[in-house]
Design a protein that fits this description.
Largest sheet: 6 strands, antiparallel
Number of domains: 1
Distance between the termini: 28 Å
Structural class: alpha+beta
Helix content: 25-40%
Amino acid sequence: MDITEILEYCQLKKGVEETFPFDQETLVLKVGGKMFALIPLEKQPLTISVKTDPEWSAELREEYSQITGAYHMNKTHWNSVVCEGLKKELILKLIDHSFDLILNSLTKKMREAVLNS
């Protein structure tokens, strides 16, 4: 997968906002004002950071050398994913999982506002 495919996929989700809160090289994708994916635009190979359930994080890190604890993030909940060598389906599943975790953490009112936007 390339960055264009990832961004197009994320933009299809309701309420997604693209921001650069840290610097001009790190694209942060948010829903309801909370981060669900970070993409360092200049980094090669393409890497994304996504939030993941802690138990699944441990399994993923054991199974895939491309998945590690995310740099500068809570490594219990965030993974860095080097997209090179991973199946597209897994990358999309990780993005969906991260988006859903964040969406479900929003208040009911915020979640409804996002879903109805």
